[in-house]
Amino acid sequence: MKSFAIPVRRLCTLGVGAALLAVFAATPAHSEPDATEGLTLVSVQDSLLGTHFWYEQTFDGHPVLGGFYAKHVDKASGAVTVDDGRKAVQGLARGLRGVSVTAARADASAVQQTGGGAYRSRLVVVPGGAAKLAWQVHTEPATGSVSTLVDATSGAVISSTSLVKHETGTGKVFLPNPVVAQQNNTLTDSSPNSAFTYNTVTLNGLYAKNKLVGGYANNVSKKPVSSSSGTYSYNRTQAGFAQVQGYFHITTAEEYIQSLGFANVNNESQDYQTTGLTDDNSFYDPAVDKITFGTGGVDDAEDAEVIWHEYGHAIQDSQVPNFGMSEEAGAIGEGFGDYWAYTMSQAVSPNTTKTPWACIADWDSVSYTSGTPHCLRRTDGTKMYPGDLDGEVHDDGEIWSRALQDVNIALGRTNANKVILEAHFSFAPDTSMPAAANKTVATAQALYGTTAANSVKAAFHARGII
Ligand SMILES: [Ca+2]
Ligand SMILES: [Ca+2]
Ligand SMILES: [Ca+2]
Ligand SMILES: [Ca+2]
Ligand SMILES: [Zn+2]
């Protein structure tokens, strides 16, 4: 039930009073608004069947967030339908009492929060039992307009919300790669296209259908593919395929992170490109926050596990600025990237002898490995800390990825990933493996208690880390 701390007054703010009075005169009295103070007409629209009056709810002259009132007048019968979406406003004094934050200071907070320039700000009422005044600031970063609410009394940022409407598209991808999906480790880079099976998927979060640019992934490849209908169905012989792979698998990884409850782990449109590097290598460049996929051998972006490994670096860089400032921190970065490929594949593929989850990049690695299963690296190795450290971050990362795999087995995928991601926030950029392991154990303790913490401790202890 809605209640209002608004005295009843005549509707006096209408620019089209005459038209409205005429409507009222033709309709029964009971359909008129009962509390007319605090309603500002913002739009009158004619449609085939009626006329639609849209009002914004106000309190003391300020718009009430989310509050609305609509009146629909049927053209044929004159019947009036009211849609009363006004919000309760309680406990708020009139006359701007308590407002100590200037518009300029609110603008500066919003600019800092969103990275875009401020172009509009106004005082609004945040409704509820303890209603308050806030500055609503619109900024426009490269990813589209954002509305930020800044508490007009304390100056705290209450929320930041993207105003961009998202579209969906469709595309064809490998899920996670053809060796795993088809359980066939005889496929090679020169196999005919007819040997490959593709998955048709939905591309979420596109800002517009015609480009692979959206909430979580930003295709900055040269000659980016385009489709006015949002249809991105390419096969691996076409340049567009790798671009779609990048968009889909980055977006899926970030959607998963968000589903775990993390709102601020690389919550942005991650730049990636599938062109310009002919090496059989891919990398994440923290200086420009961009992932580049090489095209040597099997094009790297054809294997989602390579995409997820690189996205692992983007994840950690967003959680800990400049993460990886020591050899062991670098090894943790590589180990986490491999683990992230492992756990993303876990969700979309079976764990088989032919393609065990522990085997990373089963498809990309057919170009440079001979035995089967083909693996770039594995997460089930037996290397020990510190004796097996060789000073090369990818090699040493296998110590860390094995420990994370064991955490995953002990806690289950969801809880393990919550612990692992949460723990990253307190890693130092130049952490040692023991320090990071201890943070992870403490995180497990805080989230899930002693039994979970002991399992995590055992996983790191088994590698000699703690
Ligand atoms: Ca990023
Ligand atoms: Ca290639
Ligand atoms: Ca490759
Ligand atoms: Ca794999
Ligand atoms: Zn890496």
From TrEMBL:
Pfam families (UniProt xref): FTP, Peptidase_M4_C
Protein name stated in the entry: Zn-dependent metalloprotease
Gene3D superfamilies, alphabetized: Neutral Protease Domain 2
InterPro entries associated with the record: FTP_domain, Peptidase_M4/M1_CTD_sf, Peptidase_M4_C_domain, Zinc_Metalloprotease_M4
Positions of the Peptidase M4 C-terminal domain: 323-465
Keywords: Hydrolase, Metal-binding, Metalloprotease, Protease, Signal, Zinc
Signal peptide span: 1-31
GO molecular function, one term: metal ion binding
Highest taxon of the lineage: Bacteria
All copies of domain FTP, residue ranges: 43-76
